[in-house]
Amino acid sequence: MKSNYCIFLVVLFINSCGTDGDNICRNYRLVWIDLPSSQTIYATDKKLSKSQYVSIGIPAFVFGVGHDKKFIIAKQHPTNGFEGSFKVDTNITNYYIINMNLDTFEENKVIGPLNITSFDSARFALKIEKIKFDMNYPEYY
Q1: DSSP label of 58
Q2: Residue 63 contacts residue 39 (beta carbons within 8 Å)
Q3: 71 lies in which domain range?
Q4: Which of 29, 40, 60, 125 is least surrounded, with the fewest CB atoms within 10 Å of its CB?
């Protein structure tokens, strides 16, 4: 009986967290939990159920995303984290490239954080400079 009560509390806690977000493509989703400034990219993995998403390692706050059939690009402003209510630092912009052809937990799936010069060089080397940031969000909350 005690274990059923604990399971109930865990499920209740998980369901009480407000989540929202947008699909990017395939098994990738832009998700925020409780606060829009906690927004980051999650993916389902072949090893998990289709309804279970895991963070792919880009910290909050992702505010721009674009993609083609192989890659996702993302723009991110760092935050001061959960304890600091995810206050966004718009003075810093990091860039990321996600290789969708690799498994979710595979090394080198995410390239970044990069500054704009390194990001542009990586895009050129990967032949993905035509991808545009077509999913854009306010840069502050």
Answers
A1: P
A2: yes
A3: 18-136
A4: 125
Is residue 39 a part of any domain in this protein?
yes
Opening angle at CA 32, ends 93 and 23, nearest 5: 90
Cis peptide, bond prior to residue 113, ω within 30 of zero: yes
Per-residue pLDDT tens over the stretch 68-114: 999 999 999 999 887 778 899 999 999 999 999 887 667 779 999 99
Strand partners, 119: none
Residue 12 within any structural domain of the chain: no
The whole model's pTM is what? 0.79
119-132 in b/e form (b: 16+ CB < 10 A) is: beebbeeeebeebe
Residues constituting the chain: 141
Residue 11 domain-assigned (yes or no): no
Residue reference for tokens 């990219």: 41
Q: How many domains does the chain have?
A: 1
pLDDT value at residue 85: 82
Phi, then psi, of 34 in degrees rounded to 5: 70, -50
Q: Is residue 117 part of a domain?
A: yes
Please state, in angstroms and rounded to a whole number, the distance separating the CA atoms of residues 63 and 45: 23
